[in-house]
Design goal:
Elements lengths: L4 H18 L10 E6 L14 E5 L2 E2 L3 H8 L5 E7 L2 E7 L5 E5 L6 E2 L1 H4 L1 E8 L5 H18 L4 E7 L5 E7 L4 H8 L5 E12 L2 E5 L4 E6 L5 E3 L2 E3 L4 E4 L2 E8 L3 E10 L3 E4 L6 E6 L2 E10 L1 H11 L4 E3 L6 E11 L2 E9 L11 E6 L2 H17 L6 E9 L2 H29 L2 H22 L4 H20 L6 H14 L4 E2 L1 H26 L11 H29 L2 H34 L1
Parallel strand pairs: 7-27
Antiparallel strand pairs: 1-2, 1-6, 2-3, 2-4, 4-5, 8-10, 8-26, 9-10, 11-12, 11-18, 11-23, 12-13, 13-14, 14-15, 16-17, 17-18, 19-21, 20-21, 21-25, 22-23, 23-24
Length: about 600
């Protein structure tokens, strides 16, 4: 039996793929729905969040989304008890429960927005915006989404019944904080530096690098600079720098100077030398460097000029009495101390840093800041109007139509091949191989299946080792497939409409290649007098097959490297399908055809 080791490799791959697709754990049971959004008006806001699983409501089980919608549609002005992630929560519901949900995944496949459904978000500009303004917003948010690593996100400009323009976002799944802090954020960045001015005898001097300005205390906490009086909170300009008067004592006046804004950020560094996460006491610190304009660097030098320094007794280092404060949309992001040797110096590559208790939170915050700073400020601020669930109607239709299409295609192949060769022994294995390729492609794309593919890898290695020890024929391509395909299976990607197109393309090339194998092996050549053996005929067929496969892969690699989601999904699926075919299914089919010729 082991002389059919190529076929056994195929069986192992198919079985592992089925397990990878369908072997899914349900920590809270199969009867549940998944939360995709909690509205601001919901009393569950801030307690429940996207990704949690609801198993029952008021003691009633929630097996699917239909049951959830039916139960929640009649809940008004009453207390509600939800069982979420195995814990009980009680809320009071006014007009609506304010929780949108979808059916939980029944497989390990990551379906795209079109197939699984998702979330639709409507954002409205706070000021009147034109179509061109919304287009600029879309361009900026697309940049943020790509940098942050968000996938399956579509942006649309829509016009409401009131004539105003809105921004519509459709995404497969997204947390509320991503909407508020990344997509809705205008991204107005400012870096302000505190500027203490020493006062003696009621007056002092504001020292910049090349200029100095007299300042005097006046009554009612006001100050006078160059003959102009300023109250606390007033903003004025000195030496081309915008300052804010913060407060004053008998010995010191505290000003706040704006060193940088978003227009000064020229480059965001993300290389490991200038960007990263490191553990600190009580949490994790994130940091990344930025390149600022020469004008911004000069303002930094002017503001920090003449500032006194102090010795940090804990760390033993000297710092300026100034601090730099980072603001995003007028919200303080972080404050940093400034080393004493930077006072009055032009610094074009400052470092932005912050900290979070959890490592994942630190990573996400770093990515958020980098995404916003790199994409720039939105031309208008946005506010969330509504968030709703997109029905996965296309996905339901897809599975039904796919089943019918697969049965029709299988029947068509059997009939055509039977007419050509007059043998079901040729056509039926061809259909089986084609279906096996689809299963293997889907199995490779599945998530959370590393252990399954590791077991498959070990079994494949055992089969290959025994076949080599028993001195069966050597097939280096099948050996490579036995190792490479399980390794590819440990990765995953989204199955969306482009990926389905890639599966169809892989099936088409697979049937073509199998016809080449069958035709080369079973047909005789009238003009060729040499009597080829079966093995030689199969080698001739594989020479053609590998040439065609190499051409297909070479055509797909540029599309995969483009990075555009729509094209990239098609390219990845096609390449994986071709590799699974030439390294696993084609060798198995050739061995089946070879065995038939010996009967």
């Amino acid at each position: 039996m082991l002389k059919y080791w190529r076929v056994w490799l195929l069986v192992v791959m198919v079985f592992a793929s089925i397990m990878a697709i369908g072997f899914k754990t349900y920590p809270y049971g199969r009867n549940a729905v998944e939360i995709v959004y909690v509205s601001n008006d919901s009393s569950a806001r801030g307690i429940l969040e996207q990704g949690m699983f609801i198993t029952n409501i008021n003691g009633e089980k929630v097996p699917d989304i239909e049951a959830w919608n039916l139960i929640t549609s009649g809940i008004r002005d009453q207390n509600v008890t939800l069982m979420v992630n195995g814990k009980s929560y009680e809320f009071y519901v006014n007009d609506s429960i304010g929780i949108d949900a979808i059916d939980i995944d029944r497989t390990n496949l990551n379906f795209g927005l079109d197939l699984r459904g998702g979330t639709r978000i409507i954002l409205k500009p706070k000021e009147n915006a034109t179509k061109e303004t919304i287009d600029q917003v879309i361009s900026t948010l697309q940049t943020r989404a790509n940098i942050y690593g968000l996938r399956e996100m579509n942006f649309f400009s829509v016009r409401g019944a009131d004539g105003d323009y809105y921004l519509q976002i459709e995404v497969a799944g997204i947390k509320r904080d991503i909407i508020d802090e990344l997509l809705s954020a205008q991204g107005r960045f400012e870096a302000k530096i505190s500027k203490p001015v020493e006062i003696s005898g009621g007056s002092g001097t504001i020292q910049l690098v090349s200029e100095s300005y007299p300042v005097a205390l006046a009554g009612n906490d006001s100050i006078i600079i160059e003959g102009t009086a300023y109250e606390q909170g007033d903003i004025f300009t000195l030496g081309g720098i915008e300052f804010e008067y913060v407060n004053a004592t008998d010995t010191r006046v505290l000003l706040m100077g704006k060193a940088y804004d978003g227009d000064d950020i020229e480059l965001i560094y993300s290389d490991p030398q200038r960007s990263g996460i490191m553990p600190i006491q009580g949490g994790y610190r994130f940091f990344f460097g930025v390149l600022v304009s020469p004008e911004g660097a000069q303002r930094f030098a002017d503001i920090t000029a003449g500032v006194q320094s102090y010795l940090d007794l804990v760390g033993g280092e000297r710092y300026l009495e100034s601090e730099i404060f980072l603001y995003l949309d007028e919200q303080l992001v972080s404050s940093l101390r400034i080393s004493s040797d930077l006072g009055g110096r032009i610094v074009q590559e400052p470092q932005i840093t912050g900290s979070r208790v959890e490592q994942e939170d630190a990573i996400q915050e770093k990515l958020r800041l980098q995404a916003i700073l790199r994409s720039g400020e939105l031309p208008t601020s946005l506010e969330t109007v509504s968030v709703g669930v997109i029905s996965p109607a296309l996905g339901e239709e897809f599975f039904n139509s796919t089943l019918y299409a697969a049965l029709f295609a299988a029947g068509a192949v059997i009939i055509i091949i039977f007419i050509r060769y007059r043998s079901l022994k040729i056509s039926i294995p061809m259909v089986f191989i084609g279906l096996s390729e689809v299963i293997i492609i889907l199995g490779i794309s599945a998530a959370d299946d590393a252990m399954i593919w590791l077991v498959a890898l070990l079994i494949n290695f055992l089969i290959v080792s025994i076949s080599w020890w028993k001195k069966f024929e050597i097939d280096i391509y099948a050996w490579v497939g036995a190792i490479l395909i399980p390794l590819l299976g440990m990765a995953s990607w989204t199955i969306d409409l482009p990926a389905i197109g890639g599966i169809i393309a892989a099936i088409g090339t697979g049937v073509d290649h199998q016809i080449i194998i069958a035709d080369e092996t079973l047909s005789s050549r009238g003009g060729d007098k040499r009597d080829y053996t079966v093995k030689e005929k199969i080698k001739r067929a594989f020479f053609i097959i590998f040439g065609a496969a190499a051409t297909t892969i070479a055509a797909m690699i540029p599309l995969m490297s483009i990075g555009i989601g729509f094209v990239r999904g098609f390219a990845i699926t096609t390449i994986v399908g071709v590799l699974a075919g030439i390294l696993v299914t084609r060798p198995a089919y050739a061995r089946i055809i070879e065995a038939m010729n010996k009967e």
